């Protein structure tokens, strides 16, 4: 899962750079890298929210923090991101106009779709593979335990231990 804390830190750093850029009169074209980092971090937080709603069984059992705590953190991060989005919208609309904001929204949707098709899909396949491997190992261990107990019982009955 994308780490929401890291994503929020990345988003905040990129947002600060964007605000400073607008304050000193930089063109939006020169801040594309910061915009891209901010949009990618937003996408990561949204993906973390999706994954937190349906966590894998091993995460439910062995997670360091509770599912509820993680969900609350994600909600707070989304609120911060929404505040940043509103401020960024105002800055862009004021300095560049509504059309530039609409172009950025389209670009954001494209980045999100691209990340969904590549990064998040690959991460989901990896998690599924790891889950299958762990379940297989647990099933084999369980089978060995059952066979071992059966062998001990059989030896006990036949040898009257």
Gap from first CA to last CA:
53 Å
Low-confidence stretches: none
Order of helices and strands: HHHHH
Strand content: under 5%
**Main sheet specs:** none
On the 0 to 100 scale, the average pLDDT is 83
What spatial form do the alpha-carbon principal axes imply? rod-shaped
| Count of discrete structural domains | 1
The total strand number stands at 0
Figure out the total of helices: 5
Quaternary structure state of the chains depicted: single chain
Please identify the structural class as seen in this structure. Answer: mainly alpha
Describe the structure.
- The structure is a single chain.
- By secondary structure, the chain is mostly helical.
- It has one domain (4-133).
- The chain contains five helices and no strands.
- It has helices at residues 4-23, 32-53, 57-62, 67-95, 98-159.
- The mean pLDDT is 83.
Quick overview:
This protein has about 160 residues and is an all-alpha fold. The chain has helices spanning about 5-25, 30-55, 55-60, 65-95, 100-160. Helix content is about 85%, strand content about 0%.
Which terms would index this structure?
single chain; 161 residues; mainly alpha
